[in-house]
TrEMBL record:
Keyword Repeat found: yes
Record's signal peptide: none
All copies of domain Clp R, residue ranges: 2-187
Keywords, sorted A to Z: Repeat
UniProt name for this protein: Peptidase
InterPro entries given in the database record: Clp_N_dom_sf, Clp_R_N
Species this chain originates from: Streptomyces nodosus
Record SUPFAM superfamilies: Double Clp-N motif
Length: 187
């Protein structure tokens, strides 16, 4: 499938691996892919993100992703569901970090040891890459661009889509910007 990725999409995947390595984590996940998408310039995805007002807010998105990672990767919806049955996630995170140190719930950490070699992708990240293929096909595109990765990311439930939506980037808004329906078209 990787041979069907455009240069921009390949750069996103490579960038996600770099984000994973830089954070000392074992596996590449959807948040790493989102951060790599935010790093791109001059691509269809970067055009769409800029059109939706996300330029200049990369640091805020990164902070929101880090906060969710600190909660063990649970979304706000997960936290609300737990609160509905009387579990205070903030209190649990606080107690765990008090006992084991800040970031103790962060999944996928390499334990301070830099791991050499290729980083595997989480099942969610692999599913996202497969979804980007389906997204490209649905738009009649033979190749997978970074815009297809971004669209697939916003179509899936989870922290990255939630964080993007908090910053005004939804699947519907991206569709409008990229393929028409009232917004500017990416070229």
């Amino acid at each position: 499938m990787f041979e069907r990725f455009t240069k921009d999409a390949r750069a996103v995947v490579t960038g996600a691996v770099e984000h994973c390595e830089g954070a000392g984590e074992k596996r590449v996940d959807e948040a790493h892919l989102l951060l790599a998408l935010l790093d791109r310039e001059g691509s269809r995805a970067s055009f769409a993100l800029t059109s939706l007002g996300l330029s200049g807010r990369r640091d805020a998105v990164a902070r929101d992703l880090a906060e969710a990672r600190r909660r063990g990767g649970l979304s706000r919806a997960d936290a609300e569901a737990l609160a509905g049955i009387g579990i205070d996630l903030a209190e649990i995170v606080s107690r765990v970090e008090e006992a084991h140190g800040e970031g103790a719930l962060v999944a996928g950490r390499a334990g301070g040891v830099r791991r050499l070699g290729r980083r595997p992708f989480t099942p969610g990240a692999r599913d996202l890459l497969a979804a980007s293929l389906r997204t490209a096909a649905a738009h009649g595109d033979r190749h997978i661009g970074d815009e297809h990765l971004l669209l697939a990311l916003t179509a899936r439930p989870g922290v990255p889509a939630e964080v993007l939506a908090d910053h005004g980037v939804t699947h519907e808004a991206l569709e409008r910007v990229l393929w028409g329906g009232g917004g500017a078209k990416a070229g």
